[in-house]
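Bug #77: duplicate submission created two jobs. Keeping one. Sequence:
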Amino acid sequence: MGAAAWAAMPAPGEPAPDFDAPTHDGKRLRLSSMKGHPTVLYFYPEADTPGCTSESKGLRDIYPELKAKKVEVIGVSTDTVGAQCNFAEKYSLPFPLVADDSKQVGTAYGVLNPNGRARRVTFFIGADGKISDVLDTSKAAAHVAKVRETFLA
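Kept job's structure:
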């Protein structure tokens, strides 16, 4: 992938880049369909690895409280639909996992490492479709804590 293909990470106040991508359950998800609801869009490096599992299970555990507040959660990695499906089933993840094996979503959000995997980055998207905050750290627990602090405190 040439340097021109790498996008900068969108910043707070900017519209969240829309996408239409396959999910773990064989459906397609268009981010713009979430407009009207705050959305947690979290990128993780690889399904069923320790940090990604910890982060996803942490979000799963608070998901009922988030849904009660009309907050959507979407996970994204560069894994295949099959890998995302296995991950979702193994840990009973109740929210969509986007299979970004084309790397189009990760590229649009500027989160891909040189190895082509997504970094652990969470975008907080307001009901208006604009990014309200971004957390970019490899610490999985920090992402769950920030979601909890933002929506459930």
